[in-house]
Amino acid sequence: MLIQEYFKTRKVILEKALDKYLAPSDEYPQQLHEAMRYSVFSEGKRLRPILFFATYEMLIGRKNINRLERLLSTACALELVHTASLIHDDLPSVDNSRERRGQLSCHIKFGEATAILAGDALITKAIEILTEIKNKNISLNCIQILTKAMSTRGMIGGQAVDILSAKKKININTLRYIHLKKTGALLQAAMELACIIYGAEENTSITLGNFALNLGLAYQIVDDILDEVGSFDILGKEPGGDSRNNKATYPSLIGLEKSKKMAEKLLRDSYNLIKNMKNNDVLIEFVNMIKDRLP
Amino acid sequence: MLIQEYFKTRKVILEKALDKYLAPSDEYPQQLHEAMRYSVFSEGKRLRPILFFATYEMLIGRKNINRLERLLSTACALELVHTASLIHDDLPSVDNSRERRGQLSCHIKFGEATAILAGDALITKAIEILTEIKNKNISLNCIQILTKAMSTRGMIGGQAVDILSAKKKININTLRYIHLKKTGALLQAAMELACIIYGAEENTSITLGNFALNLGLAYQIVDDILDEVGSFDILGKEPGGDSRNNKATYPSLIGLEKSKKMAEKLLRDSYNLIKNMKNNDVLIEFVNMIKDRLP
Hints:
2 copies of one chain form a homodimer.
Chain A: H1 3-21, H2 30-40, H3 47-60, H4 72-90, E1 99-100, E2 103-104, H5 106-110, H6 112-130, H7 136-150, H8 155-165, H9 172-198, H10 202-229, H11 232-235, H12 241-244, H13 250-254, H14 256-274, H15 281-293
Antiparallel strand pairs in A: 1-2
């Protein structure tokens, strides 16, 4: 199967499930439900759910879209939490982004107050969905993995350090912390969730979790590099945003060449972690997709 | 046991448990953990956890603080969700309150961005705590009850309608919706959670849930009345805030006398729902506390 086909088909079933789980826009209070749908159905790449599907399909050893039925609730929960974090990140007091994925940010479109509540409601909805998983052990395990990934020791912690570091001189360790937590924690959760549902051995789960952390870090470094030297087309947003926001980036801290080397090493490490696993082709594709963005 | 003694002792064990569950303020990222603790340990009345304890102790037929040990996680989850909602409500784009419980609001003290994240983190923590309940059926049931109470069909929905109604003419049904959802939903959850943990019959849970909804609505009406005619001492905040914010209140919609009658009727209805239950003294006290605030 072509990789484009793989991504496309998984995206379709995910978006169908998201549509099923979210309240319709005409349900009272309409503006809140509209805001939630507006942000969830913007042009997201759905990387977290697709990484989650790909991990599960590697573990069961076949690509079969019908086998993903029971994974849909968890896949949606991942995407809802990610969307919530983007809505809150875009707020004026946080990253102050007026646009996201080529459309107005949630708070520009619906107002700040509704955007704050839409984020809260998406987090709540994500957990609600996970409680519906039939196997209660798995349900609770999934909730534990997701809340750990979101917590002050995960995504929210990374975002907090990011905010507090703005306009300050920070070192490479702090920058690494921000990216590992802000981006890495939820990617790691995506792979750990697949392991829990499949029933993988703990070793496998740890290895794949590390793969996800490396991948997330590499992605961020490449993003930083493109912000320096890239174009709108590659980046999907106006380059130079980080330096305009006085944000520390890898190139600003260690230079362009060293940043490239670091990204390449992380991608190599990621590859090495999974190279001996069977049916690893889609995961390898994730590594290659990031490598291909490197200028 | 004197009722003051009852409230005080339950408050003490709750606050000890909250202290145990929250990360210490010197844990990285410190400012985020500090902000969470600052808001949780402001002078809250802890009404939701105490209502939850009181319901459970009524059901088991004895007041015994040692029997509350296994309820502490759920009691803390209730208080953390309530605190998160207050932090987000106080934000400039929402209710724009600079003070809360006689101290600066979270966003005034720590900045808006940290306040938004502190709210997110408290919601996440509340769920995390509930996953630790040993009995997995009860754990999942509790998470379901709490997320339903928080959802767009509960607390968050009520808050959304409240925001969207500001500076607009609304009718009494909309105002009732706001209060039932914004305040009632979490009080109802407090009593339903006690029922689930005790293993009460569904009928009992429904009756007590309705008791909580009536109580919440009565509380809000009395608050509205005091905002018209009360003093700082009774209200705990500067009176007249609602009319300054152009907020619809019961007195502004149906007049002072009718508002009083409505509150009295709701309190009578609440009393009638529980008057035949054994060991109902603390719950009756909740009704009386609100009655006593009526001018």
